[in-house]
Amino acid sequence: MNSLPIHHLPPKSTTTAAAAASYTAISSFLSIPNFSAGPQSYSLHRRRFRINKSLSHSSSYSNQMAAANSDEIRASPSPTVISLKPIEATPESFHEFGQVIVASPDGDEFGPRDAQLDLSHGIPRFYIMHLEDRPLEFSTITHHASVTQCLGSIGGHVWYLGVAKPSTIDPSEITGTVGSNLVQSHCGHFYAPPKIDDVRVFKIAGPTFLKLNRGTWHAGPLFLEKTMDFYNLELSNTNVIDHTTHNFAKKNNVIFSFVE
């Protein structure tokens, strides 16, 4: 049988054109760009399409997760803001939480109006504490179970302190089980969480300082100034081994605020 002359065979350009036409149809079906370079570009773009498709799924999953997190945030109720009226700190108004110490004449002997300190569980630390940006609101409150604490503004400026009565519990008095009404601190001692209705805010001004009883819950110092310095008397390791905090926002869904 005589073979066809070479010029009777389909030209190579026809094969390329047919492949390009097939690629155009596939491109239309898959909604991907049409490359004019032929089958090699199609093979390359198939790989790109698989990558893009994978990225699209990843992006879609990220968007779904973001939407879910957004829905969860929207579903969580915002904390209730409880407005408190500041109380002027006096020896009488502050007696459940500690003492208000005012100036006394030089030469007076030690007496009940002086700070009744308990620094017996460690090395006393007396230092100047520099604070910045402490607005008139709080959602956490802290106590120190093993030491009294003294706080005073250097310069006698106006400042505020949120407080609640001590609620530490002697282990010998524990009759129930640890639960919502009885908590063991990471520091080792037991306590009852502070009650919302027991929280107060005190205003301190002038040449005076506060002595907090052992276990008194406190939030602050808080102030309107940009920065303030305070002298602070506690133990050298108070903030390391004796620092128990209750988070009202997480535990009670409330925050406290006050204005002057």
TrEMBL record:
Transmembrane regions listed in the UniProt entry: none
An example Gene Ontology molecular-function term: ureidoglycolate hydrolase activity
InterPro entries in the record: RmlC_Cupin_sf, Ureidoglycolate_lyase_dom_sf
Gene3D superfamilies: Ureidoglycolate hydrolase
Protein name: Ureidoglycolate hydrolase
Organism: Erythranthe guttata (Yellow monkey flower)
